[in-house]
Task: structure prediction
Amino acid sequence: MTSPTPAEPLEERLANRLSTRLRARPSRTVRVLRRLGRFDRAVYRGVAEMSTPLLDRPLRRVSDFANFSKPWLLIAAALALFGGSRGRRAAVTGVTAIGVTSFVVNQPMKLAGERRRPDRTQLGVPESRWVPMPSSTSFPSGHSGSAAAFAVSVGDMLPELSRPLRAAAIVVMFSRVYTGVHYPGDVIAGAATGALVGRVTSTVARGLRPSHG
Result:
């Protein structure tokens, strides 16, 4: 039984649809989208070809542990318990940002993207890196969205935590490409969405007066 042909990256699919509808010489937008699609696949394959076996187990664990936003919820719990009033406000802000991002990414964006997951076998991801392939569509990355949302929102509320949180978020994002469950474009779109939601959430939270009592 032959393996199914992997779905084209979202950029390439959009380019093909535009080209079909225009029924003429490809426009600048179509050409740019196709270049992005080729770049997306090239970066994915480049990561797959990295000879870094020492990273396989740690990044598998990172990718698995990030399911259901576990690291961010644990950090939020620690901030709420031990961070005083500032920590509690930051925790609530971060969890709110995760909730909003998860809804936006996993509902309208994933439904609109309809992008299948990468074919790790055909695209050369070593099995030693594999984690269970999620059943949801690929675009955008929910893990990346939640990581960016929490890092940006909590980092805005507690600037002293901004750098370590963003570093941790980047590791989670990279692990999703390294383990082969997302194209780089999925991660970038998820991270951009999460960062935007995180910034808006923290801006609203800082504009509210802390309650007393």
